[in-house]
Amino acid sequence: MTKIKLWISDIDGTLMNYDSTYTKEMELLIRKIQKKGIKLVLATGRMFMGAEFAAKKFNLTTPIVCYQGAMVRDKDKILWQSSVNNDIAREIVEYLREKNIHTNIYNNDTLYVEDDNKTIMESYCNGRGTTYKALKSFDEIEFQNISKILAIIYDEALMKKTKDELKEKYKGVLTIVQSAKPYLEITDKNASKGNALKFLKKYWNLSKDEVIASGDQDNDVDMLEEAGIRISVGNSSEQIKKVAQYNCRDVNSNELVELIERMVLCE
Known about the structure:
Layout lengths: L5 E4 L14 H12 L3 E4 L5 H10 L6 E3 L4 E4 L2 E5 L4 H13 L3 E6 L2 E4 L4 H8 L7 E2 L11 E7 L3 H14 L4 E7 L2 E6 L4 H12 L6 E5 L5 H5 L3 E5 L4 H6 L2 E3 L6 H11 L2
Helix pairs in contact: 1-9
C-alpha cells in the first residue's frame, strides 16, 4: 500500500458528535497521526471560526477547509477561495424570505442573520465556538465575499422542495447540498470539499493514493472521490455509502479510529 500522507475529514458526525463531543480514543489517534508526520486536515461546512475551534481541540496546525469547501485557510492566510456572486446571493435571500426559511449569511467571514431565532441559533452555535450578528434586514450590509448561505429547514417536505427548486434554477451556477437533516448548504459551483482537496493535493504534491478521506453526508461525496481510501461514518447518506470503500458506525463506536490505526499506523 502507498504510504498515506494526508487524512482529510469532515468534523461533525465523523470525528466529533454533532454536539462537539468526541472519544478519548479519537484524541489519542490524532496525536499518533501527528507524531507520524501525517497531515490531518479538517473539511467542514463550519465557518473558519468554528472550524478553528475544533482544530485547536486536536492541536492541529494544518490549513482548514471551511465553508463547505469555499475556503482553504491557513491561520490568517486564505490559500484558496470561491465566493457566491453577490447578485445571486441577493436572489437567494429573497427566495428564502418568501418561504419564511431561516437563513444564515457568511459575509466576509462574519455570520449574519436577520431572524434572530434564539432556539435555532443556539442549537447551531452551541459548542462550536461560533458567534453571529443579528440584523433587522440583510439589506443593511454590503455583500462581499459570500462564502456560503445556509438555509435551516426542519420540515422534510419543505427541505426537499427547496433543494430541488434551487438545484434546478441554479444548475451549473451554485453547489447545493444537504450537510445534515436541517442544513441546506448553498455555495458557488466551484466551492466543494472535493475541489478544496484537489487544491491541497497540488499544494503538497500528493497523489490520490496518498490520501484518506472520511465523512458522513452528501457534501462529503466529492471529497471521498478525490481520495485513494474512502470512509463513511455513522448515519451516513445513501449517496456517500455508494462511494465509500469502508462504512463505520458512529463516532462513539471508535470504528473509524480502529480502521485508521490498522490502515495508517499498522497497529
